Amino acid sequence: MIELQGGPPQWDKARQGMQELDWTCYELSSKERRTVRRAFDADVEFSEFWWVKVPVTGSSWRAEREASWQITELSRSAQAVVYGRLFRCDEIDRDIEPEWQVHSTGHQTEDAAVPGIQRRWRTVRRWCATRTGLLDVRVRIHADKDAALHLARHLRTDGPRADVGVRPLDGRGRTGTLRHREDALNRALALLLVPLLVMALFLSSTQHVRPLAAAACWFLALVCAIPAWWTAYALPVARTRLGCLVVCVVVTLATAVYALGVPGLVDGVEPRGAWAAAGIAFYVTGLILLGRRWRWQVLVVTVLPLLATLLVAALPFTGRMLQDGYADALSLTSEETAVSGTYQLLAAVKLLWPTLAAVLLVAAAWGVLRYFHFIRPRSVFAGALATLVLTLALLTAVEWTLASPQQAADKLKRAASHRTDAPPYFGISADWTCVRPTVPARALNERGGTLSPRAPYLSFGVAEGNVVLWDSAADRPLRVPAGQVKLLPVAGPGHSCGA
Question: What pLDDT digit, counting tens, does each position of 23-81 carry?
Fold first, then answer.
């Protein structure tokens, strides 16, 4: 119920604004008008009261807050004083009626003289034929059983007939089943699985923390399990209360096995894997909720082409950025670290995906907060806060990404010092090899150090006519002309090369 102040001109502006928004207006009854005017001490010529249906997208929880925000926006756009006085959240979710299939029963007339065994056999055969749909009539009815049977027998083109019956198709027409609404099952699954997923996060952390922290994680896991069980029992996740209990037990045990594992049989999930699963679920949920507020045509026409254009435009500039940073950290040249276009594409994706992930994180958080009406539409504060979070996330992602080449170079240096296998870096790989000179030692043209034939080297291959090696003693690359040495395989990083 809204109150409009100012007189008939302002009332007309507000009514026109509501018509543009496709809001439905109702006048108050005489009794309601007297009650409201007495309660607000309103002037007849100054204030008018209406019932208005305000469509709210998102959760029904806190929907009155969203409705009040929309009424405030209406007041600003119509330049009229409009107050939201009374909010009632109507449940728009409809009840699902059981579905029945009409079938013929004209074949059920039996002769009394038929022997008992043959009569029972015919009964079983009729039951099987009815359940498998062999006797179905092409009519389905959504109603209670009595109403469905009455409609099937009386609303016929050839007049009322008693030779038809109905059978349930979805099980909700049986005696003792729970009647629920259209979206009740979806809400029940969401309210059941989300607390259990959080419970799995706490359980997976109990094995890698101190005893006091582990006890706190167990307590928080129990706190998460209680609302999940209550939700599963109160909402229809199964046809009966016993079925709900079975679902609770099975899903909780599956979550515990997933998080903790079974000693000797199954290992529990690592905390990193559990957090990754929770992050993916958050991303998917938030983006879906955000997409529900947008028309898919707008998304396809504006957002997706923009992202594709930015990615394609950024690829030429980021194709070799990580490889060049890796080469600079090891004092190598671009020719000595040349890789194929596939690895350049992978490096560009490595460089760009944290930025895209940060953008999607803010978008997913925005979708969740808007769905539950925590953010006011077109809020300057929320927009500024989202921009700040996005900027910090982008700076953090850029810092982590640009530090990747130096970290990879440090790993290669440690591998060379400790004689272990060096990890590759987006197509740039160094393998252990023995280098045997084919010319006298005085004729070798080493650059960057002195070659030791007995020690194995990490080799980057041949580039510009030189064999590029990594000298761990000098902590810099060693280049030797390829025509003056011969490369031999080495048995392992810890083995020495023969004389």
Answer: 888 888 889 889 998 898 888 888 889 899 998 888 888 888 999 999 999 988 888 88
Task: Identify whether the C-beta of residue 393 lies closer than 8 Å to the C-beta of residue 363.
Answer: no
% of the chain exceeding 90 in pLDDT: 2
Rounded CA gap, 78 and 18, in Å? 9
- The string over 459-490, giving b where at least 16 C-beta atoms fall within 10 Å of a residue's C-beta and e elsewhere, is bbbebeebbbbbbbeeeebbbbbbebbebeeb
Tell me which residue has tokens 């679902």: 247
pLDDT in tens, 279-301: 888 888 888 888 777 766 566 65
Of residues 440, 479, 442, the one with CA closest to residue 457: 479
Least confident of 90-104, 145-159, 399-413: 90-104
pTM: predicted TM-score of the whole model, two decimal places? 0.66
- Closest among 455, 444, 449, 467 to 416, alpha carbons compared: 455
Q: Helices then strands (H, E): number in the chain?
A: 15, 14
Helices (H), 380-441: 380-402, 404-418
Q: Is the dihedral of CA 419, 420, 421, 424 positive or negative?
A: negative
Cα(83)–Cα(38) distance, rounded to whole angstroms? 17
Residue with tokens 């002195």: 450
- One-character DSSP codes across 266-307: EEPPPHHHHHHHHHHHHHHHHHHHHHTTS-HHHIIIIIHHHH
Q: Determine the pLDDT at residue 349.
A: 75
